[in-house]
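ASSEMBLY PREDICTION REQUEST
Request ID: AP-0331
Submitted by: J.K., bench scientist
Number of chains: four
Total residues: 1072
Priority: normal
Notes: Please return the full assembly, not individual chains.
Input sequences:
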Amino acid sequence: MLHLRKSLFRILETSAGKRRGISLIFNLLLITIITLNALAIVLHTVPEYNQRFARLFYDFEVFSVGFFTVEYLLRIWVCVENEKYHHWFWGRLRYIFSTAALIDFLAIFPFYFTLFATDLAIVRILRLFRIFRLFRISRYSHAFRMIQSVVNDKKEELILSTILVIFMLIIVSSVMYYVEHSAQPDKFSSIPATMWWGVTAMTTVGYGDIHPITPLGKLLGGIAAIVGIGLFALPTGILVSGFNEHIRVQKKPRITYCPHCGKEIVNH
Amino acid sequence: MLHLRKSLFRILETSAGKRRGISLIFNLLLITIITLNALAIVLHTVPEYNQRFARLFYDFEVFSVGFFTVEYLLRIWVCVENEKYHHWFWGRLRYIFSTAALIDFLAIFPFYFTLFATDLAIVRILRLFRIFRLFRISRYSHAFRMIQSVVNDKKEELILSTILVIFMLIIVSSVMYYVEHSAQPDKFSSIPATMWWGVTAMTTVGYGDIHPITPLGKLLGGIAAIVGIGLFALPTGILVSGFNEHIRVQKKPRITYCPHCGKEIVNH
Amino acid sequence: MLHLRKSLFRILETSAGKRRGISLIFNLLLITIITLNALAIVLHTVPEYNQRFARLFYDFEVFSVGFFTVEYLLRIWVCVENEKYHHWFWGRLRYIFSTAALIDFLAIFPFYFTLFATDLAIVRILRLFRIFRLFRISRYSHAFRMIQSVVNDKKEELILSTILVIFMLIIVSSVMYYVEHSAQPDKFSSIPATMWWGVTAMTTVGYGDIHPITPLGKLLGGIAAIVGIGLFALPTGILVSGFNEHIRVQKKPRITYCPHCGKEIVNH
Amino acid sequence: MLHLRKSLFRILETSAGKRRGISLIFNLLLITIITLNALAIVLHTVPEYNQRFARLFYDFEVFSVGFFTVEYLLRIWVCVENEKYHHWFWGRLRYIFSTAALIDFLAIFPFYFTLFATDLAIVRILRLFRIFRLFRISRYSHAFRMIQSVVNDKKEELILSTILVIFMLIIVSSVMYYVEHSAQPDKFSSIPATMWWGVTAMTTVGYGDIHPITPLGKLLGGIAAIVGIGLFALPTGILVSGFNEHIRVQKKPRITYCPHCGKEIVNH
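STATUS: Completed
Returned structure:
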């Protein structure tokens, strides 16, 4: 039994060592099921597919949830093999509340809840939760770990520039509200409503559903667009430099020379 | 009395030394009130909230102005503790005209003015001044000081690229006016009107309310969009490099040791 | 005969050595014909030009295909002069399936096929294949080889960020579908339909044909635009740094001399 | 007489040496007149200003042209003081065809031509030429010389990426034409018409006057927007790095260490 638990742990979590081959096959299978789930979530909203393949969508849903449930329970069973979750009860409880396990839970929970729920509104909201199945792929993704580490590195700067963006958005939208409200009372009806204009203007999306028409409003709108480009350049620049640093660190070493003895130094 | 002034000065201005704990609590309180003011300014323009919570909005307004007024007067009283504003009269006068004190004044002045003002137009314009309460947060914001120093560092380049952007905007809009005016005399009615198109085209916002329809106008519009991307890349690039430099400078130099002679090397 | 083949190979492929002058003239002629073909492909879709110059378009088409066919056959004949395709049969077969030769084939094949095809739909689709004639210019283009090498260098990062973009697109569009579907069932009709909004929002194109109208949808739309700017900054940053690296590598290392000991220093 | 010519040359061209004070005043006057001309060109197209201040606009026009004409003739007279244009006839002729002198000529020529021209269409086109008066400011602008030198440095890369952008535009628009033409024959009427969509999509302007409606067209439109962001990142990146290099070159020297003797080297 303990031997089985160890083997299962290796297959499910480490993807290294003894059961590497089986682990690889299992992980590929899991990624395939998650990808097919993404496809099912997207396509089952197209009315014609939903009607024609209703049975297929439902069967695949049941199969996916079944597969994920078994996998979830097994993971809880074997998690104690990990040093971090060593204790048979408190370790398992801590594992259950880890980010990865919570995502796994949110991917299956809505299905079981909707079996008992009768209120249609709740069922529809919970269906949205199935998107968490996509996040499960983050377990296997190099990209997500990279983003996580970049965002961690640049946390301070990103929070700072987010505050700045929100601050500028409030200022620009407030001024625009007082400028345009009398000319277009239905569109620039309140500052929160004007903030929708503010976002589309400063991100340069510009859907065209709301835009200033008075000369003063247009002047302000032009300034907002220019400021927006500069402002959004900030987080962009931070992220780009973060990614560049990250990529550079993983690359070849840099060679400099010691100012004292003149010999070569390899900086990793 | 002098002792009280010293203690108050420490609480209000330094946030260091003896009364550090009380200073921290006071500053957190101030930031909370400012944030709530921002929320009130934004939400009181939503008709339904304004009607339902009219009383709450007014009471909070009176409380805020009261709080800010007391704080403003206390700051003027204690400012002489600062070496810069040492003189009991001229020092206080100089403090009153400092940027921080002017922002504090503009945050409370409109309220008192509107008590006596009877002209509705002026009252409405002065309400806009309440946004200055948001700027008060700049006193506590790391971000604002950073932006200020970056903009100061790159002043010359930014002015230069702003002139360039305005120059290009005039040229592109003038040519577009002569090209499109006869085809769309109501939209491209004058060069100033065409400049609204110019800004939305060169910042790539593109609301769609005004755009060329003649083949020549479309060709020019395409060139304007491409030039615009290149042109707005300029201030963006300047700001990004400015922020990067600033962040790099604040990160302490990395010290390593030469593997050959063992001496210290400072890597900037 | 063998001598002629060698001369022809030099003219067609090497543009160096003995027949350099003729090779240059031939290549300039080829680029001119390809450019004129691009012009013809673009202009023949304008109804008035197509009617007035129908004969000219057709004659130029026949001439181009004739020229390209002769050139294609000659290239197959002489390719064995290249060491890579030495064998008289297998070498030629391998040459025929090389990228360059396949592009050459796709540039002429549609014309011959449409001579025998009777189904109009196929003829119209095949006409689209004439665009491959433009790709022929890649043979002579420095730019294309540069892009190819940059994309090769940054392959891993680009795939990674593409997966991320698709992932975010699915998440954002799925959530937006559940938020906006009941308010605009005709526009946000399904998740695939909502993905069209997702792309235009996250790339900040914003045509305005589809956009959220509910407060929650607008909030999500604003977040999507901001996230989109950050997200698309990623591949942009990767490509820009790739091109910069490429340009830097091709610039020869700068050699200076130490002012103290006079020895050569290579600055990379 | 020769002495007067020398003094005038110093005032008009060098802004250094003996007559520096007068030269500065003259140049400031010239920049003021050019700026007022820009304002006049922009504002005289606003119907209400044009009617009310018709006399003022005309008088200022006559004054400006008079001032510029005298200045133009004086510059031709004194140019022989410059070593480059030493010869009394050939030197002056070469000066007349220099870029700066040609811009000066184009700023005054339209006015004289329109005095004799009777055809209204030509008069209106020539009015457009008055914009050249704005370009005259480039004589005094640091920014223009900087841009000129950056564009010169990066000439090769910019031409390369412009060709790429045009190439991609033709490819994307051609494919989109064949995909969308049958669904929207009035909007995607020909490849040149589709190229207007192509530019607005790839620069992410997106006016919304023309956009794909078929699923395949939307897919292609999404890819075009993503490719466009990457593609326009190219010239942007080149220009930004060009400006950064330019700014860096003008800044402080970089310190490295000689790999042979270990001593400090200052790299300018």
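REVIEWER COMMENTS: Chain A has twelve helices and two strands.
SIGN-OFF: pending second reviewer
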